[in-house]
Amino acid sequence: MHRIFQGFVDRLAESTTEAALRDTMAEATTALGLPTFAYLRIPPIRGGTTQLISTYPRPWTDHYLESRYERLDPVIHRALRNPEPFEWGVRLNLGRLSKSQQRLFDDAACFGIRCGLTIPIHDGREQMAAVTFAGDDYSLPFRRNIEKHLRVLQLMAMCFHAHARCRPMGERLVGGVRLSPREFECLQWAAAGKSAWDIGVILGIARRTVVFHLENAKKKLGVRSIQQAVARLAASGQAVMR
C-alpha cells in the first residue's frame, strides 16, 4: 500500500497535463482493485467551466456534460451538502429521485457505472469538487476494496484535487478565455476546415455534441460565428489540426 501511494504522489508531482493526471490516478486505482474513477470540479461562479477528469467511457462523459447532469446529479447534490465520503448505487438510498435523476442513473448504468464511493472536497476557496471511484456491480470484492482503502482513497482524492486545480491549462486558453478540452478540440478541427459532421466522425461523437461544444466556445469567446471563433484561435497562436 505504501508503495502504491508513494508512487501515486511522485507521479502527480510530475504530471503536467490532465491526461497525465488521469493516467496517474488510473494506475493507482487499478492497483487498488477499483475499475474507474472520476474527478469533477464545480466552478465557483455560474457559467464557469466544469472540470471533469475520468476513466469513464468518453461517450458517457460527453453526454453528462452536454446534458448538464452536474446540475441535477443526486450524488453531486449530496457532495455539496455533506463533506463526508459516502457510497451510492442501486442498492443504496440517495433519497427520492426525480424522473430526470432516475434517467441520469439509467443512462450511467448503460455505460457500466452503477455504484461507487464519492469523496466530497470542500477546500475553503469557494470551490467544490468530488472524486468518485465507481464500478458496475456492488459486489463483495468492490465493497471490501472501498472499506480496506478508504483512508488512502481520501488522501489520494485531496492530493489529486490540489494538483488538478493548479495545473496550468495554457494549451486551452484562447485570448485569455479558458475553453474545456472538448470545446478547444472541436474549435481546432473547425479551424482546419472540418464540418460538425466531420468533427463528429473524427472524435467519435455525435454531430449535435460537436455543435454543442462549438456553441459553448462561441459564447465564452463572445463571438457570434464559428469563423470569428476560429479567428480568435488563430490570433492566440494556437496550432491548427491537420
Could you walk me through the main structural features you see in this protein, from its secondary elements to its overall organization?
- With 242 residues, the chain is α+β, with helices and mostly antiparallel strands.
- It folds into 2 domains: 2-166, Beta-Lactamase, CATH 3.30.450; 170-235, Winged helix-like DNA-binding domain superfamily/Winged helix DNA-binding domain (Arc Repressor Mutant, subunit A).
- It has 10 helices and 7 strands.
- The protein has helices spanning 2-14, 18-31, 58-66, 74-81, 99-110, 140-166, 181-191, 196-203, 207-221, 226-235; strands at 36-42, 51-54, 86-89, 115-122, 128-135, 173-174, 177-178.
- The strands form 2 sheets. The protein has a 5-stranded antiparallel beta sheet, with helices on both faces. Strands 6-7 form a two-stranded antiparallel ribbon.
- α1 packs antiparallel against α2, α7 (181-191) crosses α9 (207-221) and α8 (196-203) packs across α9 (207-221).
- The termini are far apart.
- The mean pLDDT is 86.
